[in-house]
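Quick note —
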Amino acid sequence: MATKPIIFVFTTAYAPFVGGAELAVQEIARRLKNDFEFIIITARQRRDLLKREQVPEGTVRRVGLGLEAIDKLLLPFCGAFLVLRIMQRRRNHFFVSKHHPVMFWGIMISYASIAAFFLKFFYPKVPLVITLQEGNKEWERGLSKWWWRILLRSTKVNHITAISNFLKDRAREAGYKGPIPVVPNGVGERLLKIVPHSSTPGVGGIQTPGVFPRGALVIFSASRLVYKNGIDILLEAAAKLKEEYNFKVILAGDGPERKYLELQTINYKLQTRVTFLGYVPYERLPELYQQSDIFVRPSRSEGLGSAFLEAMAAGCITIGTPVGGIPDFLIDGSTGFLSKPEDSDDLVRVLRKALVMNDDERHAMIQRVRAVVRERYLWDAVAQQMKEIFIKISDPNKSE
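Predicted structure written out below.
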């Protein structure tokens, strides 16, 4: 009986810490678990999390003391040591040079990917593939300032994939010479089945008293409250529009900027217009998309922007900025609207367009968006692309 290839996945965070990169691993691995064995190496970050956990997509192995800052620093060393133990116990090192039944998959240029890089000194013939998920500025600060170029120029990195054309171009600029397939993050097909919220205020959808009141258009954002996501710009634009339109801004997500944004809400006298929901489980987001009219995230940087794709698939009129990978799918006036980065006045202009759309205009845009999502951004199609890449890597003799 043939042994399934083993893919060691190196990701700094993993469930229950779920962002676009972690969700991609989860969705792809669940669809490919019959073809590959996934062992996910990650930082523990919380003491209540199991060091070893069996999940539907494979096995999660968490390393560290259960302290976020410390565990990320330990991950390159503890993660590499753990994989060495697993490899030796399974004796895979006796035949990796022949059939390559083992792969290393690094998620982003991160602490976790350093562990995979270290392992290449012990197993030089095991393929290492790195998936780029970073936003615009990720490689300009901290560790990534120098690690980005070192890793991508290293002969130890055998394959690169990128979730957007923007990141593909950045990899080229960093000096990577090999092929770079663009494999985006995806969305679940169930979002396409959501009946979009009516553009008539207060009509359609599940009403949540006090949060989604009847009679007001709902502007929604599912975003971590961090500087890069530009929620401060959204609040500034809302303050400029509050006398013109009856709307409510609903913010799902938490983060270090929350106190500042709450203070900004008070300063702009938006207390009755803005609601902070805090952390919202990923499983509840489809319900919130369904109750919303417009999705807005005026990003300062973005690798791709999975939340945009989800909102678009769910039938929200979507507004973003032309940064990072967003222009791959958000075409101004066709699949949504674009506003200039760092410009609340331009966001006001774009919001006015979205707020006055009639039902026919909304329906036409939603139909265009869903056609794009069906063609390129469903998780089944994304997983199939990664499967083809993994098969080619695990058996170089196979053709594409």
